Amino acid sequence: EGSATESYRCKHTLRGHGGDVLDVAWSPDDKYLASTSIDNSIIVWDAGNFPERATTIRGHQGMVKGVVWDPIGKYLASQSTDRTLRVWRVGDWVEETKISDPFVKCGGTTSFLRIGWSPDGQYVVSSHAMNNEGPVAKIIERDEWKARMDFVGHRRAIESVRFNPNLFYYDKKHTS
Questions:
Q1: The model scores a pTM over 0.90
Q2: pLDDT of residue 175
Q3: In terms of DSSP bridges, do strands 123-125 and 95-99 run parallel, antiparallel, or are they unpaired?
């Protein structure tokens, strides 16, 4: 009572990757936990039945350094040292799209690649891309999977992006 301490204990050990785990992410409904590894794979764990796997996703040809769930629950996106960002369908775990153009000139200089999905699910943003020889974060539109916009201004490779989880609305009544 009145204590600010917490205590934890290991409930499950999730084994399956052939190398170090580089990123983990919970699905929006907490049904799955995705983990990525230097073994080029993504393991999707069934959180209701740990340590059971829902699936193992293979397709990247390099270390998978980042993973993020679509907040709507339809997709899982991953980014790898193979210079691709891939979007996987949650229903059947099949690749929806592979995006490589913005990453062709990227070097392997980042320790990790933390990608982000907008809270409304309309955009996924890469953490390391290039535009006119400069580092950018590519903003990729949902459904067409086109990268038409960038976040610019960095001088070195971008390793991580994160959206504010709150949605903001424009209120015309309170403008002057």
A1: no
A2: 63
A3: unpaired
